[in-house]
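Re: the 260-residue chain
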Amino acid sequence: MSKQSKTAIFFHMGPGSNSEIEERLLSTQYPEMLFWNQPFQKSDVDGFKNLILNTEQIVSSMIKENGGPISVMAHSFGGHLFHQLSLRHPEYFSSCTFVATGYDIVSGFYQLLKLVGADSATDSALKLKIKNYIAENPIQKSSEFWNYVGLIAQDPGFLRLYWPSENLFKNFKTYATSATPMDMESFQNILNDFLKHYYSPLNPSPSPWTGSIEILFGEKDPLIDIEHESAIWKKIFPHAQIKVLKNSGHFIHLEKLLNT
């Protein structure tokens, strides 16, 4: 095995994002980990499909170099990449850890929208707008997803809700300002394709992969309904071990390192 070969890969929350912050903070702790920056998806069709194929290529190359299956750490939406690859190539993987990985992203963003609307730090005009919108749309719908995103984005500090403390959010921002920003075109293209062709929370595709999988949820994650998400992932990976971390948010894997 060459000095540059890796036996594990990190799938970032994405879509349209990168692993710069994780590599900066976690590379010493996980020297065997490839912190892969996913390619942008500029086509307005097949965004998620193309990302799956991109991921499949990099994983296949790692397996050829290492001579065997690899481990995965998947944060947030990265779990969907693992799920799809486990359907196509279950032999690729030895183990996986999901970190704050929700399957039902429509439910997650609707939940986040309600929290933004109720948060004391949210601008009063936006709070009223969200209140009125929810009153008119009391049930989550896939067709309303981009309306959720649009309203949430009107609060420039909504990411504060991803963290269990103001100090952690402040420390995260210090790293985030020097990282490549999320590519919003890729974000939209990937999620449009995902919602149209892959999103099925009531009938998700069970995976034939039987390797070791641990699913970590943060107790205070604004995107996760723990009971709801646990039930979905258990349909996909019946053997999964699910753990809930108290006083943790959406960036479980970074909180200890930023808590200084």
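The chain has one domain: 8-106+163-258.
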